[in-house]
Structure formats: C-alpha cells, structure tokens
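This part of the workshop introduces the protein records we will be handling. A record pairs a protein's sequence with a compact description of its fold. Comparing a sequence with its tokens is the quickest way to learn the format. To make this concrete, we reproduce a full record directly below:
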Amino acid sequence: MLDIKFDYKSFLKTVPNRPGSYRMYSDENTVIYVGKAKDLKKRLSSYFLKEVTFKTRALVQHIHHIEFTVTFSEAEALILENNLIKKYQPHYNILLRDDKSYPYLVLSKGKHPGLYYYRGRKKIDCEYFGPYPDVSAAKDSLKLLQTLFPIRQCADTVYAHRSRPCLMAQIGKCLAPCVAMSDAAYKNYMEQVNYVRLFLKGQNQAVLTDLTHRMEECSEKLEFEEAAKLRDQMLSLRRVQESQSVSGDLMFDMDVIAHEVAQDLCCNHVLFIRKGRIIGTRSYFSKCNLTDDNDDPLTAFVTQFYLSETRAGMYPKEIITDSKIEDAEVLAQAIEQQCQRKVSFLFNVKTERAKYLKLAQENAKASLTAKLADKSTAKERIESLEKVLGISGINHMECYDISHTQGENTVASCVSFNRDGPDTNNYRRFNIEGITPGDDFAAMHQVLTRRFKNLKDGIIPELVFIDGGKGQIKQAEEVIGDLFNEQQVTPPLIIGVAKGEGRKAGLETLIRGYTREEYHLSLSDPALQLVLHIRDESHRFAITGHRNRRQKTRTHSVLENIQGIGPKRRQALLKHLGGIREVVNASVDELQKVPGISKEMAELIYDELHAL
C-alpha cells in the first residue's frame, strides 16, 4: 500500500477528461515532475494505483499538491510540458539540461571578410552558416576550411593592427589581407571568400567547376605555379567531399537517431546530416526502467530534444529513428505550431537512409558499452578499496591537498568522489590566511576546521584522504575528532597518502588514521588506482587554484592599496613617471609634479610605498 499524504481521491474528482499538462509539487513552490496527457483524469489516476513502478512510488510519496492546465489539443499540451520542464527543471523528469544556444560560423563583411566561430543572438551584421549541433563540430569545420580556403580567421582587432604577415600567412593558410595587396591579390582573396560561401551552402560542385576553369586559364597563360596551387586546392576539396559524404543521393537535411538500452541506462545517439554530410554526432544518456512497459526512453528523449527552444533553426526535413515514436504525428504538429517547421518522422527506412541508421546504431552501442565500462570500473575500484580497508558502504569520499609557492598564496583543495566517480558539484577551494608561510600542518588544520565546523551543512564523507604523511594525518585526527565529537556525529575514516621514493606513482603508502596501520599496494590494484585518481585530482585542483590566486596577486598594483588613489590617479602616476618601478623610486617632489597629486598626497604615496 502506498504511503501518500496527498489527498488524491478528492483531487481526482476535480480533474476533467481533457488534454493538458500537469505539475507535481513537493512543497508550496518546488516542482518535482511535469507531464502531459491526452486525458488528464486517466493519466493522473494511474499514479495512484496499487501496482506501480518503483519510480512512480518514490514520486507520489513526495507529492504535496498537483496543478494542471487544460489545453485545446495534445500537441499544445506537449509544447506546454516542454516549456515547463525548461523553466522548472524538475528532479524526476529532466533529461536535457543544456540550454545554451547553438554555434554558427559567420562570414564578416567589410573590405577583407573573415571567418569566425560565433555563439549567441544574431545581433552582428554578418552572414550566418549553421547552426551546428555542438561546439566541436563548428570548430572542426573552421580547421577544415582553413586548409581549403586561405582567408583570415583572426579577430578584427588583430587584423586592424598588423603590419606584416602572421604565421598562418607564412605557412600558406592565409593570404595576409592585413598587409598591402595588389589588385590581382585582392581579387583572388575575394574569390576565396566566395568559395567559402558556396562551400558552406553545400554548393561544392560550383566551387570545383570554378577552380577547374581558373586552373585551365592559368595553364594557357603559362602561369604554372598558380595553376599548381589551384590544382592542389581542387584535389583537397575533392578528398574532403569524398570523406564527408556517405552518399551523394541524399542531399537534404536529416537527423538519424538510434538508441541502445542496457542495465538501467539508455544511450540515444544522434547523427546530424546536412546536405548529405554528417556534420556532427552526439550521445545523450538517460536513466530508464526496463521493468516498466510504459517507459519509452526514445520517445521521451525525442520529445524533449526537438521541442527545446534552443533547437530553433536546427530542424531537418526528416527525423529517422530505429523504432517507432509514440504519437509521432502529435509531436510533428507540436513542432510545426511552435517553430513553423514541417518535419517527418520515419522509422522503417531502406537503402541509403538505412546505411545512416546502421551507423547510428553502431555508435549508440559503442557509446553505451564505454559508459557502462566506466561505471563497472568505478564500482570494481571502490569495492576493492572497501575490501582492503575492511569497511563497507562508502558512498562519499573527500581528499585534501595544500598548494603554495615558497609559502605564498596558499590554497587548499577539497575534491569529492562518490561511487560513480568525481562529484564536481562538491569540489571546494580554500584560501589559507593567518598562518606562518609554508606551514602545511597549520594549513591542513585550518582547511579541515573550516570544512567540518558545521556538519549540518553539506555531505558527510565516510572516508577522508589526506595528501601527506603522519604530520598531516595528526592534524586531521585532532580537527575531525574534536569537531565530530562536539556535534555527536560519527567521524569518517582517515587515510593518509604518503608519497613514495622519488615521488613515483605506485610507491605510495596508505596510512590509517589513529592506528598508523600501513598499506602497500601495487599499481595494478584497483584500490590504489582509485586512491591515486582522487589524490591526483585533489593535487590538480589545488595547483589550479594556487596559480589563479598567484596570477591575481601579480596583476594587482601596489598603488591600489593606498587610500585616495583611484583609477585616474593611478593612471596619471604611471603615465607621467613611466611605470610602477619609477613611481616607487620617485621622490616626494617628483610625485608632486604629477597632475592631480598634491603635496600631502605625494607624501602619503611615498610613505606607503616605502613602508612595504
């Protein structure tokens, strides 16, 4: 019997047999699930049956109240559902959290147009090509175009201030419009720009035809060197055309989606095909319930993917799937209403389309296999660590490390791991202040005190790794023992990771807190592999934070610490005297000669700079 606090019987009496969207709340304001239905009363009633899935049981036990909106049609309910999912990002049904806009390639205007990667609103006056399915696809296209058509890809600010050719021009990947060009060179540059335009529009044959014609003209004029360049460009373009096209018969746009399910995970792999070329691929993973006949991960993915606001402009003519999409006609209507684009859903395809679908299926299977292998590897490692330490139930681990340069700008890192691997949402850095420079023991004492001073906030780990030997472990024992006892909470197990001879990986010694028991494991042991992964991640995170802090210190002017010296006076001092070194070496009289600096202010600056 379900333990439900929500009075669903009274509520269901008020629900009509109409299409619409509904929202489930865990309290007055928190939406935990959004759905749509052809018949609201039937759909909502199904949640409160005696025989429901584990996922449904967990969901209904958290329901505080339900709200619904009646719509004219199921297609409108589908649009509303996806808008609400984007707005609220409910815990129980959010699949796609990436709400970034899609990237484009843009061809600028002006005397010498350039080609760039761009993401954002179409507010700059350029020619837009795309959108591309992801950043890597757009940047890969840029690299390809740079090898085919030597037009500039540098920023306008760089281009405007250059007086001689850059490295890209010297290796033949840019015609160097930043320097003076003859009329013939300028004409050639603009022809290359036009080739880029045609290529991005899919008119490859027009480019090849024009290149062939120009090559023949140069040969007739005995300009063999220029003819050879055109020949090489033409051959490169033909090779690219062959490698990018699976078939030349399908020259329109389509997305091909295949899905693969194993254990509790589903991989939906998408091939983005435009003008007969695969311009990008991507795998999307989601949880699924194999015991629930109503759980269709492919339909759920396609619905949210194609009704996303960020898909605007990305719709192909055809969407091919490896199985039938439930209510495909309704989804097509919803897309047409929301985006004024007509799309067709196909699933039983043959000939050329079947080749693309087979390719997508192979990619989906390979991606899922790799994903599951990662999960099984993580599980094997953590189980091995539990066996070595003689404990069980490790759900959360943390590792602490200290980084500084000769005691300056000390930063401590805290990295978090769970049973699936790194838990980056719980990574933290601590700027260490008020200790003797270079005192790693005091730094460890401070970071652990700040981390565990209030155990009501955040996750409590079962295992804490300390990057260091017995001195650092002793600090951890004192802090964790005192703070956890004060707050009457079971303390975690403390493990020190002491570096081996020559700091070589695999020679580390694991030291157990309090007992000082040592573990010497081989590098082939999954337990040590996990410990080294955590330790190295903590080390990397600490060093990155330290470098950022050190760089910030280096770019900080000592003049900023002097009261009364704002940006304008700092600029006047540096400009008039020639730099910070000259300001420091200047006398009071020399400082007083700077516009805006009075005698009193000059004396204050001199005293502050020479008191450091």
